[in-house]
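ping. complex inputs:
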Amino acid sequence: MTSESDRASQFARPPLTWNSAGRDYAAMTVPAGWPAAVSPDAAWGNATGAGVRVCIVDSGVEDGHPRVGQVQASYAVEEDDDGNCTVAKVPAEDMSGHGTACASIVRSLAPDCEIHSVRVLGHGLSGSGEALLAGLKWAIEQRFDVVNLSLSTTRRKFVDNLRALTDDAYFGKTVLVASAHNLPIESFPWRFSSVISVGSHDTGDPGQFFYNPSPPVEFFAHGTDVEVGWLAGGIRRATGNSFATPHIAGYCALILSKHPDLTAFQVKNLLYLTAANVRGAQ
Amino acid sequence: MTDDLSPLSALSFAVLDAEEEHRTLLHSVVLVARAIFESEASSIFLLDSLTSELVFEAVAGNGEDFLVGSRFPASKGIAGWVLDSGQPLVIENVADDPRFARDVAESTKYVPSTLMATPVICDEEPIGVLEVLDPGPSQRSALTQLELLSLFGLQAAAALRLIQRSRAARSRLIMADGEFAELVEVVRMLEGLDGERRQAGLRLFGSMRTLLTS
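pong. complex structure:
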């Protein structure tokens, strides 16, 4: 089994390419293998999320919650007095219930996926953006298949670093699903094209998601009155883009479970082709 | 965000001494929020960054008589998450969580069933939280309720910012060993005068300026 430190040391940005001069075009053949008609069944039919590692970057996840089950591993960003952030293994716990809620939604769609947690909020973390950046960087270096980020930062000073990180995820085959802000204000990283950005729809149907023809929010998923796991094994109903996002993360886990070799670009494409308001390829 | 006010700004805020007016403005935000959402209560919290606590700054409805000024750790519960994440939420069945119910009941003597919370954001940073407890039945969807709540959050941000600046102005004057507080007092006295004494005071100021710039 590959350890976290092994994964981090193996992580390297792919070499840059400016053109195809000198390339062997035959070697560039991509085995797409998609069926002629792209349907939800072709995209994730009979998939359970098995073999897919999902990371919840949030307030922590309650291990053993009836709606979550086993949390494979729990980590947290720790801040020293000088504001330097490191990531350390911690006991699984959730300070607010929000991370558990997100994990419970992913689990409801992808029952056999692995759930991992990186806590970037609570326990004295300022929520200032540094912790978010450190936790996200760590998750991308671990090459998780799917990262659920129902968070964003409004601070512009983090934009360049966040953009570089999300590009690393995109080219490194980590599907980063990021929640749009619920308020009409600028925040990041959901505004970046390298992530899959999610807002809420209010149809009440958890099995339905829409492609937004007027992005930057690219998809709308079930985000109103969502039944979610909360603290102490509890259940609540919650509304917000935070809860729409893990629905899409769950579908990504299903897609990657069925088609493990897909890139972030291809996963986004499959989501587009199977959105309730697209389905044109069927 | 900075409250590093110049002496002139600090003097202006201190002379204005508008904390009461700002509090009235803040209270009006929760009054209107409570009325629009037909809720049991609405509150605004301000983050005390020195102690990492959320402080009740304005309350309408349940707890109005005794909650203002009370505080709780900013890292706890739904308000804490909203503050940290900068995201609004609507959470139902809140009272089903025994831990939440006990904590809240101890501090506020009221346990809501539904809790709506939005961050109060100023200069890209959440500086507080606006909550609405147990909104009445509405034709609006929870999503449009969140949008409406966020508009109240904008109003609360403006009012909280004014209060923060007033307080920063006062502490700025205190930190300056009272040298500007004396000046504020003189200006206030001058405002209360009329006729010959006021004119004499203004002439004295004019003479001081000539002296200082010569």
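The beta strands of chain B are 41-48, 53-61, 71-73, 89-92, 115-122, 125-133.
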